[in-house]
Design a protein that fits this description.
Layout lengths: L12 E5 L2 H4 L12 H7 L16 H15 L3 E5 L2 H4 L8 H16 L3 E7 L15 H17 L5 E6 L1 H9 L11 H25 L4 E6 L4 E3 L4 H22 L6 H4 L4 H5 L4 H5 L5 E5 L4 E4 L6 H4 L2 E2 L18 H13 L4 E6 L16 H19 L4 E7 L18 E4 L4 E4 L1 H11 L1
Parallel strand pairs: 1-2, 1-11, 2-3, 3-4, 4-5, 5-7, 6-8, 7-10, 10-11
Antiparallel strand pairs: 8-9, 12-13
Helix pairs in contact: 3-5, 6-8, 7-8, 8-9, 14-15
The structure holds beta-D-fucopyranose.
């Protein structure tokens, strides 16, 4: 593979991404308080392989080695998340020992001239915040946490995103119930979505009250949903899936009301929404991060809880090309989804903050020949170059993920890393895909 000149590291930002809960481990060390993911993992049946994040990649104790690895692979940018549960204590005051970990991480990155790209919230909500995202108060607690990070680390963080994929926290967490906190209640998921966006807005206000030199934004996982057939019911189902995933988050970011179809699904929202909330959500943003993995196919709901949602997903099956987690490989979707969004909202500069594949190829004779992931990355990078060529303002690309890690409800069963992790020994082995990217970045 050769690199399209539009993606040359001289003009385009190349990075790899991780998140705190998925790699850090050390879940009870140095005053860290439990997150809703710690409690969720402790509930039987929640995680496919009954695992948890207590050790994960043990990155907390291996950060020097891991940052060295990022440098060796040639990345100049690293996206990670800060654990709210390390930075604050039960009483929401600062935990200096937790803060120190991120200072050490930033020191190591600086030593290798790697620019940090931080996310404040990648799903690991402190478990002691009563009601979690169903409580409006949590949005105000998030703003206090943002203020603390801005004060204590802000001078070393050039780019900060408030939330990662709030759709997952809201809907996977409170409607489908497959993510923490595991609630299954449609109305509550919409309340959570509103509080998450309020937290984003309050967080940006809090940060800007401390510093004005940080590039600030949010990371979303917008949806491209195609109807299973041309029947009007299926077309409407795909539309509802996109409204929930896109409009529900993008509308407030630009001060727009939710679409009627969503508003009518919920009375509870009116109870939690206050005059002026939309204006809080619509803080100016310097950038937006987009995560893309696949598209979905939607059909009209046949019954059960899908009826409330207004759509049902069709599970893709072979012979479609699928990654090991069962997601369709559909590179064109990246172009379609970005163009769709650009058409509907006045987006700021864009970064692809996550893209990658679950390819569970293991180590053979010391090497990992993850050819499916290599193809996946190549075909998606071609789409990124095509988008830029056609005028989209995309400034960077972060591969998900640096390391095989704790893949949420799938536990350790799905490997997204470009570096293999042996979870018995914690040995890291760069895969063929990592070496491919290293070559591209050097060329
Ligand atoms: C995204 C998450 C990330 C990882 C990938 C596979 O939705 O942001 O943490 O789990 O999916």
């Amino acid at each position: 593979m050769t690199l399209d000149p539009l993606l040359s590291p001289a003009r385009f930002e190349w990075g790899c991404a991780t998140s705190a809960f998925q790699i850090e481990g050390a879940s009870t060390v140095d005053g860290k308080v439990p997150s809703i993911w710690d409690s969720f993992c402790a509930q039987p049946g929640r995680i496919l392989d009954a695992s948890d994040g207590s050790v994960a990649c043990d990155h907390y104790h291996r950060l020097a080695e891991d940052v060295q690895l990022i440098a060796n692979l040639g990345f100049k940018h690293y996206r990670f998340s800060i654990a709210w549960t390390r930075i604050t204590r039960q009483d929401n005051s600062l935990n200096p020992a937790g803060l120190d970990f991120y200072k050490r991480l930033l020191d190591a990155l600086e030593k290798h001239q790697i620019t940090p790209n931080a996310t404040l919230f990648h799903w690991d909500l402190p478990a002691h915040l009563e009601g979690g995202w169903l409580n409006r108060d949590t949005a105000y607690r998030f703003a206090e946490y943002a203020d603390l990070v801005a004060r204590h680390l802000g001078d070393r963080l050039p780019r900060v995103a408030t939330l990662n994929e709030p759709w997952c926290s809201a809907f996977l967490g409170h409607d489908l119930g497959v993510f923490a906190p595991g609630v299954q209640d449609r109305a509550q998921s919409l309340v959570a979505a509103h509080h998450l966006m309020l937290a984003h807005g309050l967080g940006l206000q809090a940060w800007r009250a401390v510093r004005t030199d940080t590039s600030l934004g949010i990371v979303l996982n917008p949806e491209l949903s195609d109807p299973a057939s041309s029947r009007p019911e299926d077309v409407q189902a795909a539309r509802l899936a996109e409204l929930e995933r896109n409009d529900c988050f993008l509308n407030p970011l630009f001060g727009r009301e939710w679409p009627q179809e969503l508003l009518q699904q919920i009375d509870a929202l009116n109870a939690t929404r206050k005059e002026g909330d939309l204006a809080i959500c619509a803080q100016p943003m310097d950038f937006m991060g987009l995560n893309y993995y696949t598209r979905t196919i939607a059909q009209a709901p046949a019954g059960g809880r899908d009826v409330e949602r207004g759509y049902a997903f069709v599970t893709p099956t072979a012979p479609k090309p699928l990654t090991d987690i069962g997601w369709e490989i559909y590179p064109e979707g990246l172009t379609r989804v970005v163009q769709n969004l650009l058409h509907q909202w006045p987006l700021p500069a864009l970064w692809i903050t996550e893209n990658g594949a679950a390819d569970n190829t293991g180590v053979t004779d010391g090497a990992v020949n993850d050819t499916m992931r290599c193809d996946y990355l190549q075909t998606h990078l071609e789409q990124v170059a095509g988008l830029i060529r056609n005028g989209a303002d995309i400034r960077g690309y972060y591969v998900w993920s640096l390391l095989d890690n704790f893949e949420w409800a799938q536990g350790y069963s799905q490997r997204f890393g470009i570096v293999h992790v042996d979870f018995q020994t914690q040995k890291r082995t760069p895969k063929r895909s990592a070496l491919m990217l290293q070559r591209l970045l050097q060329a």
